[in-house]
Each structure stands twice: as C-alpha cells, then as structure tokens.
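Record type: monomer structure entry
Structure origin: computed from sequence
Chain ID: A
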Amino acid sequence: MSDNRSGKGGQRRRKGSAIAAIDTGARRGLRTRVKSAKGRKLSSTRWLDRQLNDPYVQEAKRLGYRSRAAFKLIEINNQFDLLKPGMRVVDLGAAPGGWTQVAVDMVGSKQGKGQVVGLDILEWEGISGATCLQADFLDPRAPDMIKHELQGPVDAVISDMSPETTGHRQTDHIRIIDLVEHALLFAEEVLAPGGVFIAKVFKGGTENALLERVKKNFRVTKHAKPPASRPESPEAYLIATGFRGQNNAEDDIRNAEIGEDDSWSPVE
C-alpha cells in the first residue's frame, strides 16, 4: 500500500535516525518525457509520466524502499517524533512494505531493539526485522493472527489501509472510515498506555462520532497531510498520541469535544 524535522533552511535529519526526508527540489529541473505508444490509454500515459517524474518515486528506488509511501511515514515521524528505538509497532495495510521498512529502521528491530508486525490482504514479500502476515484485516480472525505474533503490548498501531475507491466521494469516505473504526478498535485492545495511533483518512476529516472516541481515549489528536501525499489526493492522516489505557470507559467525556487539536496541519 497499501510514505528531520525540517526548517526554513532545508531538511534536517532527525537525531538518532539514519533516515532523512527527501529534498523534492533537488530534481525539480529534471524531467523525463513520456512518448505516446500505440494501444496505450491516455490515462496510462499520464500515470507513467507522473511516476517517472515523481522525486519520491525516484528516491524510493534509490534507497530501496518498496513504495514512495515510505516517505509519508518518514515525514509524519519527523514532524511528530512518534516512532523510537525499542518500540513495538503494528503496521496495517502494509503491502508492499514501505511503511514496514521505515518502522523497522526507526525502532531497530533488525538489532533486536523492538518489534514490527505487518499485515495486508495482498501477498507481499517478507522484510528483514519484521513479521509479515497476509490476511484481510476485516476478517474476524485477523486481529488474533497479529496478537499471536506480538511479544507484549504495542507502542504504535499505524494504518495506511485504503479501500478500493469508486470515485464517489461520499462512498469512498464511508469505506475508509469503516477501516479506521476497525483499526481503532484493534488499537484500543493492544496499545500500551501512552501509545500512538496513525490512520489514513480522506478529506472531510474523521467522522465526529469516531473523532470523539479517539479524543476520549488519546490525549492529543491531529490531522496532517505530509508533502509526500500528492496534492490531488484526498488522503490525510489522523494522528493520535498518549493512549489513556484500556480502562478508560469512565474517563470524563469532555476530552471528546471538538477542539483546536482537530485542525488540519501540513507536515512541513
């Protein structure tokens, strides 16, 4: 699927990480022209042109990431400092593995410092330092598959899951909210206190009822759209930090009221 902190002076590498965000301006002056081909649809030509001239695609290939989506997670993490060495992470909608690769690097699971478990409905190749599962997350058996692999409470549940889009905005919005609701339910079951939840949503934000639930169970909620997310894409990300724990049912509902933390913010 299912991509430090920067300042005015350019991108800065996050302390303690070997990953630096891409400088999209570096290749701005270079462009590959796609020639038309007999039998190729115009939409295919446009897609090929976009891929060949996308600096994130080029950089992902250079660095060995399986998808440009890797940079979305890198940029989100650079901004909010969420994934750290030793953390236990579950990646939902993981294929082809870009987010899983980044999580492995950030938590140090190759060196035995943390754990990364990824799951996707599609078949995908294994990644060193991660447990890679194939199943439909909406299958009632899928959560237990993941839990079986976990070595303890989870520090972050990250989801780049996206439904098959129809082009009908309202329908697509409903579909992705359903995925987010299932991911949130799972996160509430496995997260340790203080844990992190990241999930893809479409513009229009998160449904109020769902957002109220997130705010009730997490101390801080944000929406953000990283630069690696194409401008024309309706996607953005719900970011919730400071999980209050599984025994939060009696917490004051005042935290669920819509507030300033729900504003959309670019990941610079």
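Annotation 1: The domain at 67-266 is CATH 3.40.50.150 (Rossmann fold).
Annotation 2: The chain has seven helices and eight strands.
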